[in-house]
Amino acid sequence: MKYYFLVLLCVPMLLFGQATKEHIEQLFESKQYSKAASILKTALDASPNDRQLIEFLGDAYGYQEKWDEAIENYERLVEMDDTNANYHYKYGGAMGMKALKVSKFRALGLIGDIKRSFRRAAELDPKHIDVRWALVELYMQLPGIIGGSFKKSMKYANELENLSKVDGYLAKGYIYEYDDEPELAEEYYKKAIEVGGSLTCYDKLTKLYEKQDQPLKAIENLEKTHEKHQRNAMHYQIGKVAADYNIELEKGEKCLYLYITNYTAKDGVPISWAYYRLAQIFKHKGNKQKALEWINKALGEKELKPFKKFKEVIMGM
Fold first, then answer.
1. What pLDDT, on a 0 to 100 scale, did the predictor assign at position 32?
2. Which of 24, 125, 219, 310 is at 20 to 30 A from 151, Cα to Cα?
3. Distance between CA atoms of residues 254 and 267, nearest Å
4. Residue 134 falls within a domain, yes or no?
5. Whole-model pTM above 0.90?
């Protein structure tokens, strides 16, 4: 989207309010969250009860991980309209993110409010997928002594399945993976691939295989991902698994060359990491000269600690 932003101090306040709403989304897209928050606070001085502006301000703080400020604004929204599911969801979500940042003792004091907010959102909107995902994760991650429950987590996974087969299968895969039932997790991730086939579905299965030390299955799934989606990023992922596990080295090398040849910033993983993976592969092959060549290329892009450490390993060959 073409980005425009213009603040004119002489614009009449009635026009300023509407213009602000239109520009905030553009600021969010360009990740200028601090600037958005500053503009929103000024706009709210003129329209203190504008719920859309309050929600935008809460979002702006959330993007900056300023959870207390986000919570304050979402709480205002809940007080203004207790029947809005999304307000309760965002309020609970911000408290949940704060709970991850504070001490365990302080986090315990937030759990009750988080659960109430999420459950209220789910009751208000029977089709709210995001809040059901939040409840699935919350009940799985909480210890049983403070309300964690496999049964409750599965309840919301079933609700997700009724709303969206893909989300339901992914949620059940997550539950079984978290509960250390990898065979059942694999079954549901495969079902999600059959029904949806998105990158997310394939990625969940790949990460499960890596977590279970099944690199050959991970590579096979990555190849299927590439066949389906034709994403250059899959070449890097195959090379990474090959390098990490010292398997399928020829395939890994070939894929990394393809990743480097076709690389664009949209691929996500910086090209320096592809150089690093090639250095790993040549180290596995016992080719010190080639390994040094690639790790030096990686260091030429960025002098990261893992690259420096690995160069020391190569020098010791």
1. 93
2. 125
3. 17
4. no
5. no
